[in-house]
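[#protein-structures] MJ: dropping Transposase here for a structure pass
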Amino acid sequence: MKKTKKDIEIEAVKAIVSGELFLEEAMHKYYVKDRRTMIKWLKKWHLGDRFPKKLKNI
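AK: finished. structure tokens for Transposase:
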């Protein structure tokens, strides 16, 4: 099953927040070229109102 964009964003944010990956490592792993994109994902999924319950327990 192919991952959706949302799934990839959440997976990347979870890896960064948990300390599994540094921001630059996550950029490489998830093929993100611009640091600002990763920061937007962090704001959207970790700092924003859309923080999924499954990430809150990290």
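MJ: nice. Residues 15 and 51 are 14 Å apart (CA to CA).
AK: one more thing. The mean pLDDT is 85.
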